[in-house]
Amino acid sequence: MQRRTFIASLAATTVTALAPESALSNNGTKRKTTLRYLRPPGALAEDDFESRCIRCGQCGEACPNHCIKYFGLENGLASLDTPYIIPRDQACILCMKCGDVCPTDAIKKIEYKLEPILKNVKMGKAKVDKNLCLSYQGKTCGVCYRACPLPDVAISVGYLEQPHVTDKCIGCGLCERSCIQLPQAIRILPNYS
Amino acid sequence: MNKPTHKSKPFFLWKHLNKLRWISLSVIFAMLILIPFLHVYQTYVAAHGYDLLAPSEKRVYDVMESLTEPFVADPEKQLDGLKGNTWSGTFGSLQMSDPLAVLGQTAGSLKFYWPFILTALIPFILTALFGRFYCGWICPATFLYELNSNLGMLLRKSGLKIGNKHFDKRLKYIVLAIGLVIAMISGSVVFASMYPPAVVGREIYYAIALGGFGTGAVYFLLTMLFELLVARRGFCRYLCPGGALYSLIGHFRIFRIKRIVEECTDCAKCNVVCEFGLDPLRDKFGQECNNCTACIAVCPTDAMTFYISPKDIGAQGPGHLGPKYRRQHRSEYQNDQHGGDI
User: Fold this and answer.
1) Which end of chain B is more exposed for a tag (fewer CB within 10 A), N or C?
2) Which of B43, B45, B122, B215 is the best mutation test for A, with the most CBs of A within 10 A?
3) What is the pLDDT of residue B15?
4) Alpha carbon distance B240, B229 (integer Å)
5) What are the residue ranges spanned by the domains of chain A?
6) Are B291 and B12 within 8 A, CB to CB?
7) Quick check: B43 and B80 in contact, CB under 8 A?
8) What number does CATH give the domain A123-190?
9) Domains plus CATH for chain B?
């Protein structure tokens, strides 16, 4: 942890410790932070997830891809120590081990098969920025299509391998992870509900 | 001394239970360190890239491989059976959770989710039988707190004036109640962030697998300082919500420690050694005793033993080998023809 984030989290601890109880609850209000993160595959809706999760850390220990990380205080006290995924850093490979190990079913148990995964995993949806995407600029790329675990289901490609995201995209983030543009031309818009 | 030796001598193994307890604490703490390393090793195996690892990572890989090779053929899958910490863990196909996790989570979500509640069944039954044994035998925070408390003893012996304040032990039940209320209002398991064993297990994992301690480490260090400088074992005695819950569950525990009054010399070593500030000398164990057996181990006359009963034995008065009892019963001894032997 960097010293700056450390001091910031220390300050946040003292502030939240002194804040009245009403500040702890986020009833009704949506996310106040600007963080863009994903919950592990099969996670419940955000408020349900925060009340269901007991912060045991087993999902992260089960993740063979090392993509699940844990919040400090940067996303508010209610999501302290809850798991999240930043797809640009390390994206989910949809192995579904985190759901198997979750004791409270805050992350649902989903069978490692195409149909249940398509049906139950709703981490988010990919969105292509056509101004950044190389294929839309006339340079054939297609990396996101090749990185996608559900090619032709979640992403189809057309002329010059221009990616088109379909409604079946579940938001694992492997396309965002693999995008060769900097900043990435394809991003996951998280689905917190 | 023609002391009758046959009557209620403690079973000789009870004397060594305290060592066994330290082994148990050390093993569980070592497991908490080992499990994150196993997880890191699993990710290396899953990545199929041994040649791409840094030298330090290769060392982790090699050590973990040599440790696990005799037991597992396919670490990527078979090591999945060993996950988690004392807050909630997976051992093969068995999942066990802290009763406090279940209570806090049920309060937070206001729903009964039975598959999760049942994971606390085994700890619940054990607590009902042995009382607050978790606090003395398993809790990874206890391991650090007891070392911390021993350090405090050393500092006190060397002349430093370290606070040894006493508060009301019922404070922790209030902490438990307030925590439950906050969980209900905020819809979040507050105990997870303030219950030391959960924090310790998590922070060890963060430090090993995720590259650094989180905010919980600061909190835990503060509780350590509180215990060292303000009150000996202060958090466990006065504030810990888990200890409060275990005390309540173990109120009618059947494995208890009692004082054999005939052997007791009133030396009060048991009171000094008791981590939870109880009063074994005056038979005041109550629901807060965690059966740590430190008093059995320290007793010079073997006057402490286990017995099976749902209730404490109650005050037995001064020990029969102590000066107070002898003063009270001087006349009896003078009349007694064997009085001179004592």
Assistant:
1) N
2) B215
3) 86
4) 17
5) 123-190
6) no
7) no
8) 3.30.70.20
9) 134-248 (no CATH), 254-326 (3.30.70)
Nearest-CA distance B198 → chain A (Å): 7
Chosen from A44, A86, A104 to mutate, greatest number of chain B CBs within 10 A? A104
Could you please report the per-residue DSSP string of B179-240? Answer: HHHHHHHHTS-THHHH-HHHHHHHHHHHHHHSSS--HHHHHHHHHHHHHHHTSTTHIIIII-
Tens digits of per-residue pLDDT, A68-111?
999 988 888 888 899 999 999 999 999 999 999 999 999 999 99
Q: What is the C-alpha to C-alpha distance for residues B93 and B101, in angstroms, rounded to an integer?
A: 19
Nearest to A56 among B85, B212, B216 (CB): B85
Within 13 A of B126's CA, how many CA atoms are on the CB side?
17
Helix, coil or strand: residue A38 = strand
A87 and A176 Cβ atoms separated by less than 8 Å: yes
Averages of pLDDT over runs of 10 residues in chain B (342 residues) are 53 86 94 93 90 92 91 85 90 90 91 91 93 92 92 89 85 93 89 92 93 90 92 91 93 89 88 89 87 90 86 83 83 58 48
| pLDDT for the residue A14 | 57
Rounded-to-integer distance, Cα A140 and Cα B284, Å:
80
Share of chain A above pLDDT 90, in %: 62
* Mean pLDDT value across chain A: 84
Q: Structure pTM?
A: 0.86
State how far residue B38 is from chain A, nearest Cα, in angstroms: 9
> Of the candidates B28, B20, B86, B24, which has an alpha carbon nearest to the alpha carbon of residue B294?
B20
Which residues of chain A are at the B interface, by a Cβ-Cβ cutoff of 8 Å?
1, 9-10, 13, 21, 24-25, 27, 47-48, 50-58, 60-66, 69-70, 72-73, 77-78, 80-81, 97, 100-101, 103-105
CA-closest candidate to residue A81, choices A115, A109, A58: A58
